[in-house]
Design goal:
Layout lengths: L2 H23 L8 H21 L3 H10 L6 E3 L4 E3 L1 H13 L14 H16 L3 H21 E3 L11 H11 L4 H12 L8 H4 L4 H22 L8 H8 L1 E3 L29 H10 L5 E8 L14 H5 L2 H11 L15 H7 L2 E5 L1 H4 L8 E7 L4 E6 L13 H12 L2 H13 L7 H6 L22 H6 L6
Parallel strand pairs: 5-6
Antiparallel strand pairs: 1-2, 3-4, 5-7, 7-8
Helix pairs in contact: 1-8, 1-11, 2-4, 2-17, 2-18, 3-4, 4-5, 4-10, 5-6, 5-7, 5-10, 6-7, 7-8, 7-10, 8-10, 12-14, 14-15, 17-18
Pfam families: MmgE_PrpD_C, MmgE_PrpD_N
Protein name: 2-methylcitrate dehydratase PrpD
GO molecular function, one term: lyase activity
Length: 480
């Protein structure tokens, strides 16, 4: 990139970031459509709920022990502990993502909420913020992260965790600190200058550093907002350099397109399978095709973004979550892909491994052409009796554009994951009431001390999909 192009790009990024910062500083949740605030409550319910489930896994328990958490004003959701703000932001982000169940957004090409909600909620607990300010900060975090996700086209091989989303965390924390327009823009710019350059293969090969990238994103967002509050941050169009020339391509125009009229939080998806979202349409199609007959082999045609998840070998939960053959085989045999699908011993089940080796994943140009509005997948199953059937799914079940989840569906999903209605009732109460609360600190800390339930590590890997509310209400049918 020559000097003229660099100057042009950074100037455009400065202007767009300044406009975005001004919007964040004056974001008033009372002026937002009621559907937007309702959707925010549902996203909070989802991500805090799955963080509480993730916190009880063996690896997250060990991580907290190694971290030597010493108590503080912010909750560690579902862990029975509180912690300093930065620690809570990091550990909650890791727990939120570790089971691949947190809400995402196909237009952002990743997960806006987990990039900033842990930092905002930890800071809100420390400051005992009002419900209105917490809502404004969470909306700022989501919308700014999603816009940076839209604006960024990462180089092949770069994983989206921990890079474009840092700006969202910075925006949310800056809004919660009550910073003005210029300072909010400076915070966003500083966040955009602290990206993680993580490779996608770290996920497919099962390296948990992938979850740490989200912890780093939230900690960096807090740092960026504090830099701006101190007056030592500047808006210099950093995103055009960090997210643009270094990590990919960056279009500043996406930061302000339809600003104030388009709310990306309403276009997200909720996940019913504990696996990478690219595997979900294949899982949904397989649910439609699995009819009790023995499967000879499976051909999965998908878009270019998902075609790389073709590994037929795995050695831990994370690498299995990023294997379409694993997910398809698990659905065919169990009828579901849940946290307990990855329990000790199940990953090495010879029947599951044998079937996964007979699953082929290929890219299909006609499906790639439908991006980003559709993340379509076509699955063809050949049975041992010689019959062949095909199902095509345009988006994962739970996407805003395809059999979206309402509140009852999200509650049904979490009921199966949490296994305790007392826990669920407390989460639902918080998610529906915090927006109108005069202060949120104590209620947030109450979400750390949720009643104990069985961990995901020790559960028996039997599917409950057949009798779960979500499965009954959203089970996919074969596409026409």
């Amino acid at each position: 990139m020559d000097g003229h192009t660099t100057t042009s790009s950074t100037d455009a990024a400065v202007a767009a970031t300044a406009e975005l910062g001004a919007w964040v500083s004056r974001l008033d949740p009372a002026a937002a459509p009621a559907a937007v605030v309702d959707r925010l409550g549902l996203v909070v319910l989802d991500v805090v709920g799955v963080a509480a489930v993730g916190a009880r896994t063996d690896d997250q328990t060990a991580l907290r022990r190694a971290w030597a958490v010493a108590g503080g004003p912010a909750p560690l959701f579902g862990a029975g502990e509180t912690a300093p703000v930065d620690t809570a932001a990091w550990l909650n982000a890791s727990a939120m993502a570790c089971l691949e169940l947190d809400e995402g957004n196909k237009y952002a090409k990743g997960h806006p909420a987990v990039h900033g909600f842990p930092a905002v909620l930890a800071l809100a607990a420390e400051r005992d913020a009002t419900g209105a300010d917490t809502v404004a900060a969470l909306l700022a975090a989501y919308e700014v992260a999603a816009r940076f996700g839209r604006a960024t086209r990462l180089r092949a091989g770069v994983h989206p965790h921990g890079n474009w989303g840092v700006a969202g965390a910075a925006a949310g924390c800056a809004r919660l600190l009550g910073l003005g327009a210029g300072a909010c823009a400076a915070a966003i710019d500083a966040g955009a200058g602290m990206p993680v350059a993580g490779h996608f293969d770290s996920a497919t090969t099962g390296n948990p550093v992938r979850d740490a990238w989200l912890g780093a994103a939230n900690a960096s967002g807090l740092a960026a907002a504090r830099m701006a509050a101190a007056g030592v941050a500047r808006n210099t169009g950093t995103a055009a350099l960090s997210l643009g020339s270094l990590l990919g391509e960056f279009d500043p125009g996406e930061l302000t397109a339809e600003l104030g009229t388009r709310w990306d939080i309403t276009a997200g998806y909720f996940k019913r399978h504990a696996s990478c979202s690219f595997t979900h349409p294949a899982a949904d199609a397989m649910l439609a095709l699995a009819d009790g007959r023995t499967v000879a082999d499976v051909r999965v045609e998908t878009h270019a973004l998902g075609a790389g998840l073709s590994r037929t070998d795995w050695d831990n939960r994370l690498s299995a979550m990023f294997s379409t053959p694993f997910v398809v085989a698990a659905v065919a045999l169990d009828g579901a892909v849940e946290p307990r699908t990855y329990a000790d011993g199940r990953l090495d089940d010879p029947r599951l491994r044998d079937l996964a080796r007979r699953v082929t994943v290929v890219a299909a140009d006609d499906l790639t052409a439908r991006l980003p509005g559709q993340r379509a997948t076509r699955v063809t199953v050949r049975y041992t009796d010689g019959d062949t059937r095909t199902a095509e799914v345009p988006n994962p079940v739970g996407d805003a554009d395809h059999r979206p989840f309402d509140r009852d569906a999200v509650i049904g999903l979490l009921r199966g994951l949490l296994g305790d209605d007392t826990v669920l009732d407390r989460l639902v109460a918080f998610s529906t009431r915090f927006a109108a609360s005069p202060r949120v600190g104590e209620a947030l800390r109450g979400l750390a001390h949720l009643p104990a339930t069985a961990t995901t590590e020790s559960a028996t890997p039997e599917s409950t999909a057949a009798d779960s509310t979500v499965a009954e209400n959203t089970a996919p049918k074969e596409e026409e």
